[in-house]
Amino acid sequence: MTAPTTETVVVPPSRISTGRLPKGSPWAILAGAMVVSFAIFAVMNAGSPLADLNVAAALFIGMVLYIVFVYVLSLIAESRRHATDRLMTALISTAFVIACLPLVSVLWTVISNGLARMDPTFFSWSMRNVIGEGGGAVHAIWGTLIVTGLAAIISVPIGLMTSIYLVEYGNGNRLSKGITFFVDVMTGIPSIVAGLFIYSVFTIFFGPGIRMGIMGALALSVLMIPVVVRGSEEMLRIVPNELREASYALGVPKWLTIIKVVLPTSIAGITTSIMLAIARVIGETAPLLLTVGVTANLQMNAFQSDNGQMMTLPVFVYNEFMYPSASSPNASLERAWAAALTLLIIVMLLNLIGRGISKFFAPKTSGR
User: How far apart are CA 339 and CA 315, in angstroms?
Assistant: First the structure.
């Protein structure tokens, strides 16, 4: 009697397990696609200034090439299932890049055109007695910092205390509902309407033609307050009620609970809303043209009523672009681009300062 023989059945390998692309290959494919795209646009842009390079279009074409490359290579080396997964990932990444293209395009345009005049003279000279080339925007920089700083000093306490009332004390009563309604209405007010309102009020008391730095700060505060209120209100609402109840259970009064528990817990979000409000108004031009005016001199007193006009960076950009120097129009355009780049740098620095403040005052946890 012979022993039964066993046969080994060889199962053909599944297509899913035939292979995988090396780790990090999507990033390498993305880098290669971007190199190819920018090389194509560089050849097409040969002989032209660097500022004429269409960075947004190059990024878009690079992402399209990345989608094609990663799908084809994954289909060859892996399975259709892996290729479909990588295709969806590439499409989502491309959608993110497309959403960022306007920002990239604006930054590239402003930086490439504004670096030409980012010199010490631009930050130390004003436009007083300057015709044609030269001059700077120190008067506009100081004017922007003073007017925006006064607007923040006015708006932040009012907006923050309003949001505290709506969340902690309002409880949906008629007053809180009315405040919420008017805040929503103020959010959609055109900026020039705020400037006209402040100008008309000051005209009643000081006469027509009045221009003061504080007028511009008040006009900007009309635009800032609703942004601060809405942002701070949402941040206060997401603070867990358990924290408030624990504080009350220890006998801490409500006002001290708000100061010691609620505000420190939501300080990061509140700071972000304040920074968004500042970024919302720091580039406004129309209300400042009406309330602050235009000048070539350095004016540091925001409360001077006699010849109290102050220059700000948005108005400086508008004035240099719309009314260039007849003898040197290119110099005016360079100053306008440099002022726009300076405005972007100021906003970036304010956001970094805001993040630092929120991190410093945020409640410390055991993981830190």
Answer: 10
- Nearest-angstrom CA–CA distance, 259 and 168: 12
Q: Is the pLDDT of residue 1 over 60?
A: no
Residue 337 and residue 110 in contact, taking contact as beta carbons nearer than 8 Å: yes
Helices and strands in the chain, H and E counts: 14, 0
The ranges assigned to domains in the chain are 18-116, 138-361
Of 83, 94, 88, 113, the C-alpha closest to 15 is 83
pLDDT digits (tens, 9 = 90+) for 328-363: 888 889 999 999 999 999 988 888 888 887 777 766
Q: Tokens 């290669």 appear where?
A: 32
Cα 34 to Cα 29, 59, 95, 252: the distances in Å are 9, 7, 16, 59
Give the pTM: 0.78
The answer to whether 170 and 176 have CB atoms below 8 angstroms apart is yes
In 3D space, the residue among 229, 241, 224 whose CA is nearest the CA of residue 270 turns out to be: 229
CB 119 within 8 A of CB 58: no
Nearby residues of 63 by Cβ (< 8 Å), 6 or more positions away:
33, 90, 93, 94, 97, 98
pLDDT, position 15: 42
The CATH label, of 3.90.1150.10, 1.20.1440.60, 1.10.3720.10, 3.90.199.10, for the domain at 138-361 is 1.10.3720.10
Query: Above 50 in pLDDT, residue 182?
Result: yes
pLDDT at position 88: 92
Q: Are 289 and 195 in contact (CB under 8 A)?
A: yes
* Rounded CA separation 361/245 (Å): 22
User: How many angstroms separate the CA atoms of 226 and 347, rounded?
Assistant: 20
Using CA atoms, how far apart are residues 338 and 186, in angstroms rounded to an integer?
33
Burial readout 28-60 (b: 16 or more C-beta within 10 A, e: otherwise): ebbeebbebbbeebeeeeeeeeeeebebbebbb
